[in-house]
What does this fold into?
Amino acid sequence: AFEVSAPRTVKLARAKALRISLSAAAGGKVSLALVRSGRVIARGSKRIAAGTTSYRLKLPRKAKPGRYVLKVTFTPAGGRAATSTVKVTLAGRARGARAAAAGIDAPRVSSTGAPVALPDGRFHGARRRSFVARVG
It folds into this structure.
């Protein structure tokens, strides 16, 4: 005795939350879970009254583009729980993609192009040659 309405496709670059519309004939509790390949990515719950209610399920910054399943479980007051599923596709680039790329450790290089040495003047890193000398 309840209905769930959610967008089929959500653009990750703009969306911070998944907007969901819930309609129930009686009051009760709703539990929501956004699942991808068995892993719960986001979850939430809310007590609702009879009628139509909206809910915003916050999307985590680590959410990646792909197909997800929104599992909605409605438990009416003094009744049995019923579960409904809705397929949702998150499209576009992830919001945290640029910040994650900036955190990659790259070798430090001085302004002259040489590797950075310690104050004693010696280089304490792995020296890798880019060429092999031919003999003979």
